[in-house]
Write the structure tokens for this entry.
Amino acid sequence: MNVRTAQELALPVGVTLDRFIMHSQSAFPYATGELSQLLRDIALAGKIINREINRAGLVDIAGANGTENVQGENQQKLDIVANIRFIRALKNGGEVCAILSEEDEDIIHTGNNHGKYVVAMDPLDGSSNIDVNVSIGTIFSIYRRVTLISEPASMADFLQGGRKQIAAGYILYGSSTMLVYSTGDGVNGFTYDHSLGEFILSHKNICSPAHGNIYSVNEGHYNSYPPFVKNYISHCKSKSYSGRYIGSLVGDFHRNLLKGGVYLYPSTKTDPKGKLRLLYECYPLAFIAEKSGGKASDGFGNILDIIPDSFHQRSPIYIGSAEMVKDVIKL
Ligand code: AHM
Ligand code: MG
């Protein structure tokens, strides 16, 4: 066990995210604190988005007769609002030189060319669930830039490949709001305490069960799945596994991470590369899966080993409990 994990394990459940981050940083005497600050910026953006989501229904009512909300801002769809909030928080933080978002075709330069990091994110994933009060999530992935500091970031900073992520995680806006992240050593979960306005360590050192009895897949597309996926679905049925599919990647992934299960988004006849985006959906969750003992594959190899060639490229994904992912591929 390295120093950092030992330090983190020493902290009891119930400490604040800030304290946890500070404690983790203290294991590295030469750390500048920039990554710590970046994680705090992400948590802040998560709190703001959480607030927007919680009052979304009310805002619609308040804005029914016009296009402005209570703060005089234009009414916008929640995923656009989340995108704006996230970008603003990362720009203000100063550690990030560029952002790749699911909502924008090109990378967004923050103007902080001295920032060491780039962030790829899906600010609000699960679009079909956004307006119907079902769990949704933010997914993020952090890289140290490879281009020269002080110059504008470029494609190369984002196309380094999943193994080069230095941190990744997600925020789940569900029955409670949770931030789950890893900087490489273990995965920890923090639940948002509304009354304190703080994320509190609630799920320490999360370990993905090696096996489970949940499978999550959109069976509506069954007929267009590859034969090995159909075989796996039959296998799950023969074992009487539970089918659980929210249609919200973060929610489905999180449940399977805690309880043991596998999430599948295969290639289909119409989408031979699957639906989910490699850089800000598959990579970060694959990182969390692996750091917690789970696994993620595209059906051929490890998701993290795929070398990307474009910002918004897609990939099939089979992710979750290690043994279950192995079973999918074996079939
Ligand atoms: P989105 O980025 O447009 O929200 O799409 C991603 C979502 C995932 O959260 C979810 O697992 C999947 O799409 C559901 O897709 P489908 O409706 O095809 O089952
Ligand atoms: Mg998405």
Observations:
- The pocket of AHM (ligand 1) is lined by residues 102, 122, 125-128, 218, 247-249, 252, 275 (CB under 6 Å).
- The radius of gyration is 19 Å.
- Residues 92 and 139 are 19 Å apart (CA to CA).
